[in-house]
Design brief:
The termini are far apart. By secondary structure, the chain is α+β, with helices and mostly antiparallel strands. The chain is built from eleven helices and twelve strands. Helix 6 crosses helix 10, helix 8 crosses helix 11 and helix 10 packs antiparallel against helix 11.
């Protein structure tokens, strides 16, 4: 099938204009952070492979502007009325951006094929891992769901839909299938911690704060252990909300095995930064109401150590807003942790 004749590029929706601002006044376009190839940018052989596999011609394409990786990620409208969401990356993308993007897509395929039903993820339909025009391509197709990321700043009604979905999916996430070997959350988050702290101490003179962070991480990160599957990258841009209030969680590249409340706290960081009262949400939510406060403090400390180091790194060529995004999260995480410590 011809994969590119007459393909329309759909207009960007209003939510792609949402943004946040760092303390220094840097605007982060949270729904337009990625520089992704369009359908027309894919090699003809890749377009043809996709069209042949879906059994229809692509008549319109809409690239997602969210996320921080430079891979192809688009809704494709087909001439038979169906829609499909497709990701694609090649070995050349890895070399260009200095990051194993294609392997990340392969990991997502492997893990999604093993993850239990009921976790709120769009269905994995098919994938190709093949050489096309001299390059190794990984092409992954997902069920297209009629949804959009939550608006920023967060709206209370949308946030509560997402929090309810987290509670609803929690039982499914305790069923770890045979063959799905996941790293422990505490080990994952503390990997390279010594190096992280050394570099942080070299780059900042705030020794009192770093002493506090280090103690929380070293003494209490064991409280992040658990027996639930944790998404571990559950930001607002990895959430979709449908017109009827349905909620999906996408991009399951980095799941770990850990405490059931970790994703809740990670998600609430952006709500905290948008001015919502997340302490009351933590206190009232079924996943976190009985959690020791020091455990949440430890998670925030570990996350801050990650953001604090990442913002000192160069800006990757395919993700111009990544460091500003991480700066925003670094500020929010520190503010929340500092407030919690003051209120002990």
């Amino acid at each position: 099938m011809n994969g590119d004749v007459g393909v329309r590029v759909r207009d960007s929706p209003e939510w792609q204009l949402d943004q946040v601002t760092t303390r220094d006044g840097v605007v982060v376009p949270v729904r337009a952070t990625a520089r992704r190839p369009q359908w027309r940018d894919l090699p003809p052989g890749v377009r043809e492979l996709i069209s042949d596999t879906v059994g229809a011609a692509v008549v319109a394409a809409q690239s997602t502007g969210t996320g921080f990786t430079p891979g192809f990620a688009s809704r494709l409208e087909l001439d038979d009325g169906r829609d499909v969401f497709v990701k694609a990356a090649s070995s050349a993308d890895d070399e260009l951006h200095g990051w194993p993007l294609s392997d990340a897509y392969r990991d997502e395929v492997r893990k999604l094929s093993l993850l239990p039903d009921g976790i709120g993820a769009p269905a994995l339909l098919w994938h190709h891992d093949a050489e096309v025009a001299g390059l190794r391509w990984i092409i992954v197709a997902f069920e297209y769901v009629e949804g959009a990321p939550p608006r920023r700043p967060w709206q209370s009604d949308q946030l509560h839909l997402v929090l309810d979905k987290l509670a609803a999916t929690a039982p499914a996430l305790t069923r770890v299938p045979a063959g799905l070997h996941l790293e422990r959350a505490d080990e994952h988050l503390m990997a390279d911690f010594d190096e992280r702290m050394t570099l942080l101490r070299e780059s900042t003179g705030d020794s009192e704060w770093l002493d506090t962070v280090e103690q929380l991480c070293r003494d209490d990160s064991k409280l992040l252990a658990g027996e639930s599957i944790v998404h571990m990258d559950l930001r607002d841009d990895n959430v979709l909300i449908g017109p009827a209030g349905d909620v999906w969680f996408v991009d399951w590249n980095w799941p770990v095995l850990g405490a059931k409340w970790i994703d809740l706290v990670c998600l609430l960081l952006s709500a905290r930064g948008d001015g919502l009262d997340v302490e009351s949400m933590c206190a009232g939510h079924q996943l976190s109401r009985d959690v020791e406060p020091i455990a949440i403090d430890s998670l925030l400390a570990v996350l801050w150590s990650f953001w604090g180091l990442q913002i000192t790194e160069p800006v990757p060529p395919g993700s111009p807003h990544l460091r500003d995004h991480q700066t925003w999260y670094e500020e929010v995480t520190r503010d929340w942790l500092a407030e919690r410590l003051r209120n002990r």
